[in-house]
Amino acid sequence: MRRWPIEETAMGWSWKASSYRGGWPALSVLLCALAAGCALEPAGPNGAPSARAMDPARLDGAWRLRETGGVAVPGTRAELVFTSARGELHGSDGCNRLAGRYTLEAGRLTTKTASTRMACLSEPEAATSRTLGLLLGGGAEVLEVSLPDGGRGLLLRAGGEQALFERRPQP
Length: 171
Prior knowledge:
There is one protein chain. With 171 residues, the chain is an alpha+beta fold. The protein is built from two helices and eleven strands. The strands form two sheets. The chain has an eight-stranded antiparallel barrel with strand order 3-5-6-7-8-9-10-11. Strands 1-2 form a two-stranded antiparallel ribbon. It is globular. It starts with 5 loop residues before the first strand and ends with a strand. The relative contact order is 0.17.
């Protein structure tokens, strides 16, 4: 399982080169991707990572799951929809619908949700459902990242698990 190799430094969030084990060819591809815009958000005021001071309104809208544990999840129905004015969250973990309330304080997402209890049709769907359940129930750390295609990403991390979401385009 691949993890996003990032760490918090005095200057903000940066790639942890020492944790990358992909070899020189892969490292050169990674560096090219970084130069092309696949970088984490720059530090905010006083060197604090911008995701830590993220305004809850920046979460507003629909976020579609892109990866869990660094592995792409193509064709998933998993998405989260945040409404900051009411502190509401709804969406799907890929198998089950969920709805509830959330707060975002000091870069930590706290949720109180209820969901349906349908069986997942495949093990990958079940694994995705478990990961999102852990993240939403575990006070996930929230990081805003730039994606290689120039889009905005939302990275949730907690308890050794992580999930990357991309903003779903408005209809």
